[in-house]
Design goal:
about 325 residues, alpha/beta
Length: about 325
């Protein structure tokens, strides 16, 4: 995000094409159009302004569920959070991109059934999911270029899964991995974590360029609209232009790969800032997008949060 038109291994910087960190106008307009369609839905997906819900769902592996479980209570504390919004953590430890995208994988059905079960436990259905936060990768078992290529192909298949499984989820916000230069295992060290961001940029850029395998609208639509939400990599203790750093041991568990309580809070704060300020999210994430957010206890029964963050400490996360 700080490279601009500079390059890394022949690839131009910026989160979006042409070295820019903002969405191209046409792609941004498409996102705004989908955001305008978000409304409370009943369990069958029909509009229901009285009893309907808007479901935000996270998808991915261990880092994603850990960060989601910190994000949820922070969002709950907003006084102006949309009372129709239901936040559901659909991420699960050990569930790599290879698993999520491959029906023949033994864990494929287990993962997607877990997502449905969590939605059901939260009192909502797949038809009510309208926004997805996606973060995933694979274990670093292949050479870096093969790894990146396989993750790229698998993420395309994951977007197809999301389109088919959650037909009203037209908005998908993708995150990158955090810095992994402190990793004490071969799970997913550098430069794999850094390249994850480039693979996500490639995926989003291909949709912007009109890749038919990533069509977000029209009769041939096969994927949700894709956007950054958010880019999380920074070069260790070297500050990004926005000041983000990753410090060991403060921000990490002992493996140097998974974020600590402090590291999760960093990610959650970035997520909260994004979903409360981005023009494609603010209108449905907040009750009144014109009111500045603050931290306060949310009163009333309308907001649903699942799983209960209070049990996070008792949850067993796998190594990935």
């Amino acid at each position: 995000n700080d490279l601009g038109t500079g390059t890394y291994m022949g690839m131009m910087g910026g989160l979006y094409p042409n070295g820019l960190n903002v969405r191209p106008p046409a792609h941004h307009a498409a996102g705004l159009a989908f955001a305008a369609q978000v409304q409370p839905l009943d369990t069958t997906g029909a509009p229901d302004p009285v009893n309907g819900k808007v479901v935000w769902l996270s998808i991915g592996f261990s880092n994603a569920t850990q960060e989601t479980q910190t994000f949820i209570p922070m969002a709950t504390a907003l006084p102006d959070l949309n009372p129709k919004l239901v936040l559901v953590d659909g991420a699960l430890g050990g569930q790599t991109a290879a698993i999520l995208s491959t029906p023949t994988n033994p864990s494929y059905a287990t993962y997607w059934n877990t997502v449905i079960n969590r939605l059901s436990a939260a009192g909502v259905t797949d038809q009510q999911v309208q926004a997805i936060w996606l973060k995933d990768d694979n274990q670093a078992t292949l050479p870096i270029e093969e790894h990146s290529d396989s993750v790229h192909v698998q993420f395309k298949r994951i977007t197809h899964e999301l389109h088919d499984r959650f037909p009203n989820a037209h908005l998908c916000y993708i995150a990158s991995r955090i810095y992994a230069g402190y990793a004490s295992s071969a799970l997913n060290p550098e430069p794999y974590a850094y390249r994850n961001g480039w693979t996500m940029k490639q995926l989003i850029g291909e949709q912007i360029a009109g890749d038919p395998e990533l069509q977000h609208s029209g009769a041939g639509a096969n994927a949700p609209w894709l956007s950054w939400g958010v880019y999380l990599w920074a070069d260790g203790t070297t500050p990004r232009s926005d000041g983000l750093t990753w410090v060991c041991p403060d921000d990490y568990q002992n493996d140097g790969t998974h974020p600590s309580t402090i590291g999760r809070a960093k990610v959650a704060a970035l997520l909260l800032d994004f979903f409360t300020t981005d023009s494609t999210t603010c209108s449905w994430f907040l009750n009144d997008c014109g009111i500045s957010t603050g931290v306060a206890k949310v009163e009333g029964p309308s907001l649903s949060v699942f799983p209960n963050p209070a049990i996070r400490a008792r949850m067993a996360y796998s190594m990935y």
